[in-house]
Amino acid sequence: MQCMCCSAAAKDENGESWCPYCVKAEPVIHDALKKAPDNSHFVHVDVGERAYWKDLNCPFRKDPNTHLIFLPTLLRWKQPQRLDGERCSNKDLVEMMFEDED
């Protein structure tokens, strides 16, 4: 079983994220999810509004389990594999993240 976590910027009332990298990565990640192993778990976490995220004391930045610096961030929970920023919109890299670990 693998657990994937994606941290991304919150969306406004029109469903648009304030983070351009999140907007670009979202369809790539959702497409790759279709190819994920059946025993996978995917958790999507919104980090909030831009001002909240930009605060260096934001709890998402301080969390020792995620070490978030960039948005979006795609990671395997408690594993070294991670993608962040523009790399989350690279189809080949994202699909590799969703491949079975076996």
Automatic annotation (TrEMBL):
<dbReference type="GO" id="GO:0047134">
    <property type="term" value="F:protein-disulfide reductase [NAD(P)H] activity"/>
</dbReference>
<keyword id="KW-0963">Cytoplasm</keyword>
<dbReference type="InterPro" id="IPR045108">
    <property type="entry name" value="TXNDC17-like"/>
</dbReference>
<feature type="domain" description="Thioredoxin">
    <location>
        <begin position="8"/>
        <end position="100"/>
    </location>
</feature>
<dbReference type="InterPro" id="IPR036249">
    <property type="entry name" value="Thioredoxin-like_sf"/>
</dbReference>
<dbReference type="GO" id="GO:0006726">
    <property type="term" value="P:eye pigment biosynthetic process"/>
</dbReference>
<dbReference type="InterPro" id="IPR010357">
    <property type="entry name" value="TXNDC17_dom"/>
</dbReference>
<comment type="similarity">
    <text>Belongs to the thioredoxin family.</text>
</comment>
<keyword id="KW-1015">Disulfide bond</keyword>
<protein>
    <recommendedName>
        <fullName>Thioredoxin domain-containing protein 17</fullName>
    </recommendedName>
</protein>
<keyword id="KW-0676">Redox-active center</keyword>
<dbReference type="Pfam" id="PF06110">
    <property type="entry name" value="TXD17-like_Trx"/>
</dbReference>
<dbReference type="GO" id="GO:0005829">
    <property type="term" value="C:cytosol"/>
</dbReference>
